[in-house]
Amino acid sequence: MSSEKIIALVDCNSFYCSCERVFNPSLEGKPVIVLSNNDGCAIARTDEAKAIGIKMGAPFFKIKDVIKKHNIHVFSSNYTLYGDMSRRVMEILREYTPELEIYSIDEAFLDLTGFKKRDLIQYSQDIRQRVLKLTGIPVSIGLGPTKVLAKVANRLLKKDKIKNQGVFSVLDPLVCEQALNTFPIEDIWGISRKSTQKLHDLRIYTARQLRDANETLIQKKLTVVGARIMQELKAVSCLDLEQVQQDKKNICSSRSFGRPVFAKEELQEAIANHVHTATEKLRRQKSIARSILIFIQTNPFKNIPQYYNSTTIELPSWTSVTTKLIHQAFYGLDSIYKSGFEYKKCGIILNDIIPKSESQLDFFGSPSITGAVRTFVILG
DNA sequence: TCTGGGGTCCTAGGACCC
DNA sequence: TCTGGGGTCCTAGGACCC
Q1: In a structure prediction context, what are the per-residue pLDDT tens digits for chain A, which is 380 residues long?
Q2: What Å distances lie between residue A185 and A50, A148, A229, A346, CA to CA?
Q3: Considering A56, A78, A100, which residue would you say is the last residue of a domain?
Q4: Is residue A161 a part of any domain in this protein?
């Protein structure tokens, strides 16, 4: 019993919108949405905007009328601001426990097992109040014995099934049982559309039914991923907190164009920018890469001739030098570019990434991996 | 040469997350 | 006219080796 963990999921409410409200308090109580890059679609909504019926990912052009009618306040996304606010929130959370996993820009798992003897609801309320006071960001906190159950608790808060107190706990087995009874499987963390359909085929509709289902059957249908979720629903923790930020194994930069693009020169400019962005991230984690994938594509939503292609370039050695990678990326672009198409999006992915410290300089000044077999040709 | 089993590594693609 | 961007994990299947 005492080995049971206590996990809190702290989630910032309508995070991007809340950030905008911090700098514009008159928006309090009013409907607000934040749009994706190029103002393509809605990616954050306040409760007021949700109540009006704005759906996650709704294309801007389709909701323009509703926005006007209900006087919804609209913002283009400002990721520099959101990243900044996120760091401040996470720093405060870290004051409450060193065991913390920053799961996304607006969510963190906290291991509160060591605070068992305290009133955990009160402790969580303290966290909420302090974050709100120091950053202006409202957060919701779900408590459970596993990550999946903490997510369940948090989800119930958002759904307003429980009156909006900002903290909900399913640590009590009876409360948990009740919560799972009516909790739809599609709302479980890790169960999305495809898996939901497979489970519906098995006549499994609620979290409770999934928890009590035949394990072999679930593993067969949903692989080990599903089996793990089952365990977590049973309050058996099998997803650990990942406290140290792992180095990225691949780094991607891509974006849609705000307008039609035909010319190779324009694609080159965009690709160069993407390489620049990605190599900056690469250097920040003190890594080097040896493989770069370049892709270009037309707009699949448009009824025009479609083209998608990608190519991977393997470099002779690992590098984090922007110009070297841009050179290779252009070479790759040359090989896949076809004129006459209206391009909508392009991007690059850096692969085969290793820490710079794992490499050493070979005779010619370019890194080679330690321990790898190399043949040296002495010139002259 | 033929036959078979088993292990490892790699890659592409599916599924899922926020 | 107009539909995000950046990730992770897992599996299946092929290549290769012993």
Answers
A1: 446 899 999 999 999 999 999 999 999 999 999 999 889 999 999 999 999 999 999 999 999 999 999 999 999 999 999 999 999 999 999 999 999 999 999 999 999 999 999 999 999 999 999 999 999 999 999 999 999 999 999 999 987 666 668 999 999 999 999 999 999 999 999 999 999 999 999 999 999 999 999 999 999 899 999 999 999 999 999 999 988 888 888 899 999 998 889 999 999 999 999 999 999 999 999 999 988 999 999 888 888 888 888 888 888 888 999 999 999 999 999 989 999 999 999 999 998 888 888 765 544 444 444 433 333 333 32
A2: 22, 12, 11, 35
A3: A78
A4: no
Q: Which residues touch strand C (CB under 7 A)?
A: A 36-38, 40-41, 43, 57, 59-61, 223-225, 246, 248-256, 260, 277, 281, 299, 301-302, 344-345, 347
Nucleotide nearest to A11 (CA to C1'): B18
- Closest nucleotide to A43: CA versus each C1': C4
Distance A163 CA to C8 C1' (A): 34
From the Cβ of A117, is strand B under 7 Å away?
no
CATH number of residue A207's parent domain = 1.10.150.20
* Coil vs helix vs strand at A317: strand
Q: Number of folded domains in chain A?
A: 3
Determine, yes or no, domain membership for A352. yes
Domain that holds residue A353: 251-370
* A235 φψ region: left (φ > 0), alpha (ψ -120 to 50), beta (else): left
In a shared domain, residues A269 and A330: yes
Which residue in A106, A107, A108 sits closest to A98, CA to CA? A108
pTM to 2 decimal places: 0.89
Q: Indicate yes or no: strand B within 7 A of the C-beta of A103.
A: yes
CA atom of A205 to C1′ atom of C14, Å: 38
- Rounded distance, CA A221 to CA A326, Å? 43
- Are A295 and A227 within one domain? no
Question: Does residue A194 approach strand B to less than 7 Å at its CB?
Answer: yes
Q: Of A342, A337, A336, A325, nearest to A256 (Cα)?
A: A342
In this complex, the nucleotide whose C1' atom is nearest to the CA atom of residue A61 is C2
Question: Looking at the domain assignment, is residue A281 inside a domain?
Answer: yes
Does residue A129 belong to any structural domain of this protein? no
Q: Integer distance in angstroms from CA A369 to C1' C17?
A: 23
- Beta-carbon contacts of residue A54 (< 8 Å; ≥ 6 apart): A31, A33, A42, A45, A63, A66, A72
Q: Which among A25, A49, A78 is the end of a domain?
A: A78
